[in-house]
Amino acid sequence: MVLTQAGLYKMDMKNEKFYPFTDDEKVADLLDERLAYETFHIDRADRLWLGNTEGGVVCILLNNNKIIRYAYQPEDSTSIGKFKVVDIFEDRRGNIFFWYFRIGSVQIQFPERFFYQLYPSEPSYPQ
Length: 127
Hints:
The chain is mainly beta. Helix content is 6%, strand content 44%. The protein is built from 1 helix and 11 strands, in the order βββαββββββββ. The protein is globular.
């Protein structure tokens, strides 16, 4: 997969051509929005995570194309951070982490769907 200014594309390995990631209109519209997505990750649970430059994260459930948006909420200490997401990764246990410009690593907790910042001194800090 390739994330471009024109949207998300996947490569057909047989003919080595690129095609739009999905035909689903709501997902295509999301990818056409004027948000700049900095990074993406497909996890082992078949969720596509998109991190944007404004601090939000979008999750697309690939089995049904459901879209879940996570945005910074200043009054909610468990909301996602407000800074640019520069990387998304998953540890061997399936935990999802977001690396932020300026603040470091943030982990999402399921099933509650809340976020918390990790510090290098914590045992759960990703290595």
